[in-house]
Hints:
This protein is mostly helical. It has a single domain (2-100), classed as Arc Repressor Mutant, subunit A (Orthogonal Bundle). It contains five helices and two strands, in the order ααααββα. It has helices at residues 2-9, 12-21, 28-32, 39-51, 74-100, and strands at 55-57, 66-68. The chain starts with a helix and ends in an 8-residue tail after the last helix.
Amino acid sequence: xxxxxxxxxxxxxxxxxxxxxxxxxxxxxxxxxxxxxxxxxxxxxxxxxxxxxxxxxxxxxxxxxxxxxxxxxxxxxxxxxxxxxxxxxxxxxxxxxxxxxxxxxxxx
Length: 108
């Protein structure tokens, strides 16, 4: 699922849609308004986001409002947290190594 999430987030239009949905629920027409692309193109973007589990759609009469899925980015957040921990450990080791090899220190 992480690959699907990253693929969905790779497109700037889809990231903009998610940013808009962070403000609250919106219809397809609401989401299409700021873009110079067709409503069907927005619908395709929404389908990608929905398949990635990032948004939810519901039926409200003829409207199909979208909203962010609860914990939509939790898997990505967990992966990034693990990556951050690994990078921090690597940098901490490098800092320790550089501290041992400071100029003016007696090599013996």
